[in-house]
C-alpha cells in the first residue's frame, strides 16, 4: 500500500523560520491546517511544533483539533453556513464572516452557549471571492456592533486563491485606511488586520507590507517552503516536509506507442503519440497509486532516470529505461509532492499516513492570534 510521510523535524524548522520572520516584523500569525484534512496523526505532529492558533475551513477538522488540544485557539476561515452556527460557536473561537444574517445566528448561539464569539469581517479587495464591498463596511460594522456576544477582532481579505489577484502595497494600504476610518467613526478599536497569507510573505522583505498589517495566516509556505508570489521557493526552508512512497508492482519492456483505435481515457483525454516511436520500446514500471489518490501533475520522482507517463484510477505508469536505481518488483519509490497532490492523498483512504523524525520540543509559546 502506498503512503505519505510527514517529517516533523523539517516541519519544525519551517515553522521556526516563519516564526522568526514574523516576529522580526511584529506580526502574529496562525497556521492554516486544512491540508491535513483532520488526520489525527498529522495534527498531533503539527501540534507538537506550534502553539499558534490553527485555521481550517472544515468544521470537522476544528472539532478534531479541539479534541486533541482543547487549549488551542481555532479559527474558521470561510464564511460559515448559517445552519452550522451552533457548531461554529462550539468548535471555533473565531470565524471569518461576510453575511449579517449569519453573524446574527452566531450571536444567538453564543448567547445560548454563554460565550463571546470573535469574528473577522472579510472585505472584497479584487479577488472576487468572499468579502463585503468596502463601501458597505461602516453600515455593516454598525449593525454587528448591536449584536450581543459578538466581538469584532479584525478585518481581513483573501487574495490569490480564485482569480490569482496578487497582494500589493496599494491594496494593503486600503485595508489599513478602512480600519482607521471605522475606528475613528465608532470609537472602538479593531485589533487586527488579517491580510497576510503565504502569497504575501515575499512582500515583507521588500517593505511592501504596511506595519498596520499585523496578522498572517499561513499554510502552503509552512508545509512546502514555497514563495507563492513568485512561484518559487523560500531560501532556507524545506520543500520536502512530505514524501509520497509507492511500491513497484510490475516491470516489463513494452512498446512506446499503444495499438488499436484510440478513444478517451479515464480523465477524458485522448493521448497523442509521436509516430517515430512506433517501433521503439521502453522499460515500464507500474506503482500502486493512481488518480484516485494523487494529482499526478503535482508529483515528481526523486530518483534519476524515472519519468511519469500517466496514470489510471489506481496505477501510475513510469518510464524507467534510464533508471539508475536498478528497480525490481517489490521495491519502493519515493516521490516529491506539491500542494494539490498532498491534499488528494490526505483525502484518500487508500494512502497510509506516517510520521518520521518526531520529538520536536515546542518553542516558547507564541501569543494567541486574531
Poorly predicted runs are 364-370
The CATH superfamily of the largest domain is: Alanine racemase
Radius of gyration: 24 Å
Helix content: 25-40%
Output the structural class. Answer: alpha/beta
What is the CATH architecture term of the largest domain? Answer: Alpha-Beta Barrel
Helix/strand order: EHEHEHEHEHEHEHEHEHEEEEEEEEHE
* N- to C-terminal distance: 41 Å
The CATH class of the largest domain is identified as: Alpha Beta
Q: The CATH topology of the largest domain, please? A: TIM Barrel
Beta-strand percent range: 15-25%
Q: Residue-averaged pLDDT, rounded?
A: 94
Number of strands: 18
Report the total helices. Answer: 10
Shape: elongated
Cofactor: pyridoxal 5'-phosphate
Keywords: Isomerase, Pyridoxal phosphate
InterPro entries: Ala_racemase, Ala_racemase_N, PLP-binding_barrel
GO molecular function: alanine racemase activity; pyridoxal phosphate binding
Question: What does this protein structure show overall?
Answer:
- There is one protein chain.
- The protein is an alpha/beta fold and 370 residues long.
- The chain folds into two domains: 8-228, TIM Barrel; 242-337, Beta Barrel (Lyase, Ornithine Decarboxylase, Chain A, domain 1), CATH 2.40.37.10.
- It is built from ten helices and 18 strands.
- Strand 10 and strand 11 (232-233) form a beta hairpin.
- It starts with a strand and ends in a 14-residue tail after the last strand.
Topology of this structure?
Layout: E1 3-7, H1 8-24, E2 28-32, H2 40-49, E3 54-56, H3 59-68, E4 74-76, H4 85-91, E5 94-97, H5 100-112, E6 117-122, H6 137-145, E7 150-156, H7 169-186, E8 192-196, H8 201-205, E9 215-218, H9 220-224, E10 226-227, E11 232-233, E12 242-255, E13 281-287, E14 299-301, E15 307-311, E16 316-319, E17 332-337, H10 339-346, E18 352-356
Parallel strand pairs: 1-18, 2-3, 2-9, 3-4, 4-5, 5-6, 6-7, 7-8, 8-9
Antiparallel strand pairs: 1-12, 10-11, 12-13, 12-17, 13-16, 14-17, 15-16
Helix pairs in contact: 1-2, 4-5, 6-7
GO molecular function, one term: alanine racemase activity
Keywords: Isomerase, Pyridoxal phosphate
Domain Alanine racemase N-terminal: 7-225
Amino acid at each position: 500500500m502506498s503512503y505519505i510521510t510527514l517529517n516533523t523535524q523539517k516541519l519544525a524548522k519551517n515553522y521556526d523560520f516563519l516564526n522568526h520572520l514574523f516576529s522580526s516584523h511584529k506580526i502574529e500569525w496562525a497556521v492554516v491546517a486544512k491540508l491535513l484534512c483532520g488526520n489525527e496523526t498529522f495534527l498531533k505532529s503539527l501540534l507538537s511544533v506550534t502553539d499558534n492558533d490553527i485555521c481550517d475551513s472544515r468544521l470537522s477538522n476544528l472539532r478534531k483539533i479541539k479534541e486533541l488540544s482543547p487549549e488551542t485557539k481555532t479559527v474558521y476561515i470561510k464564511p460559515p453556513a448559517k445552519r452550522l452556527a451552533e457548531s461554529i460557536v462550539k468548535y471555533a473561537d473565531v470565524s471569518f464572516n461576510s453575511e449579517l444574517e449569519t453573524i446574527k445566528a452566531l450571536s444567538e448561539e453564543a448567547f445560548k452557549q454563554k460565550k463571546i464569539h470573535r469574528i473577522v469581517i472579510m472585505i472584497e479587495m479584487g479577488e472576487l471571492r468572499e468579502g463585503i464591498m468596502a463601501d458597505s463596511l461602516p453600515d455593516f460594522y454598525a449593525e454587528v456592533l448591536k449584536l450581543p456576544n459578538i466581538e469584532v477582532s479584525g478585518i481581513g481579505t483573501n487574495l490569490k486563491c480564485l482569480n490569482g489577484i496578487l497582494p500589493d502595497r496599494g491594496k494593503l494600504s486600503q485595508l489599513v485606511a478602512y480600519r482607521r476610518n471605522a475606528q475613528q467613526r465608532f470609537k472602538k478599536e479593531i485589533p487586527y488586520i488579517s491580510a497576510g497569507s503565504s502569497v504575501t510573505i515575499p512582500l515583507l522583505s521588500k517593505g511592501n507590507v504596511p506595519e498596520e498589517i499585523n496578522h498572517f495566516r499561513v499554510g502552503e509556505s509552512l508545509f512546502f517552503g514555497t514563495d507563492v508570489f513568485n512561484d518559487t521557493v523560500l531560501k532556507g526552508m524545506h520543500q520536502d516536509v512530505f514524501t509520497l512512497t509507492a511500491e513497484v508492482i510490475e516491470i516489463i519492456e513494452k512498446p512506446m506507442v499503444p495499438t488499436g483505435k484510440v478513444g478517451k481515457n479515464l480523465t477524458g483525454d485522448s493521448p497523442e503519440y509521436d509516430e517515430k516511436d512506433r517501433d521503439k520500446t521502453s522499460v515500464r514500471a507500474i506503482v500502486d497509486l493512481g488518480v484516485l489518490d494523487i494529482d499526478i501533475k503535482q508529483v515528481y520522482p526523486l530518483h534519476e532516470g524515472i519519468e511519469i507517463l500517466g496514470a489510471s484510477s489506481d496505477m501510475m505508469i513510469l518510464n524507467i529505461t534510464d533508471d539508475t536505481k536498478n528497480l525490481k518488483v517489490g521495491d519502493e519509490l519515493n516521490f516529491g509532492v506539491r500542494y494539490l497532490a498532498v491534499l488528494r492523498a490526505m483525502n484518500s483512504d487508500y494512502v497510509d499516513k506516517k510520521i518520521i523524525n518526531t520529538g520536536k520540543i515546542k518553542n516558547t509559546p507564541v501569543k494567541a492570534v486574531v
